[in-house]
Amino acid sequence: MATVVINGTVFVPSLNGSLVNGNDCTPAICSLNYAELLYIPSLGGNAAYLTIFAVLLCAQIVLLAWYRTWSFSVGLICGLLLEIIGYIGRLGLHADVFSFGYFVV
User: Fold this and answer.
1) What does R_g of the chain's alpha carbons equal in angstroms?
2) Is 24 found in the same domain as 54?
3) 28 and 69 both lie in a single domain
4) How sure is the predictor about 101, in pLDDT bands with cuts at 50, 70 and 90?
5) Looking at the 3D structure of the chain, how many domains does it have?
6) DSSP state, 23?
7) pLDDT tens by residue, 31-42
8) Each residue of 7-16: pLDDT tens digit?
9) Strand order in 19-21's β-sheet?
10) pLDDT band at residue 71 under the 50/70/90 scheme
11) How far apart are CA 35 and CA 17, in angstroms?
12) What are the pLDDT digits (tens) for 82-95?
């Protein structure tokens, strides 16, 4: 059974075969085939990488102040900030894998 659109509302088949509103899906109700990812991201792994990148960001800020390498440090700090934002989004996807709003604001 495929998705059905009724009056602009998307309905998807639930695990028991009935149609449910696509906005009401959870892993207990709907198949992960209708989710943004086909798996639930690991909470511990993503939190660990978030912590690692946050520590590296702090270290890079200290190194920027110490060595005054502005061009290199600004690029690296921007990259680390983007990694941190990405892992925050993945932590949000762990809580609700059916919503892509954690990446698109």
Assistant:
1) 20
2) no
3) no
4) confident
5) 2
6) G
7) 999 888 899 999
8) 989 899 999 9
9) 4-6, 9-13, 19-21
10) very high
11) 17
12) 999 999 999 999 98
Of 90, 96, 83, which Cα lies nearest the Cα of 42?
90
Each as own residue / partner, the long-range contacts of residues 79-84 (CB below 8 Å, 24 or more positions apart, any chain) are 80/53, 80/56, 81/57, 83/49, 83/53, 84/50, 84/53, 84/54, 84/57
Query: Do 63 and 83 have their domain in common?
Result: yes
Per DSSP, the residues of 5-41 read EETTEEEEEBTTS-EEEGGG--TTTB-GGGSSSSSPP
Residues 82 and 101 in one domain: yes
Give the residue-averaged pLDDT of 48-52.
Answer: 98
What's this model's pTM, rounded to 2 decimal places? 0.84
| Nearest alpha carbon to residue 32 among 96, 86, 101, 103 | 96
CA 105, CA 102: separation in Å to the nearest integer? 7
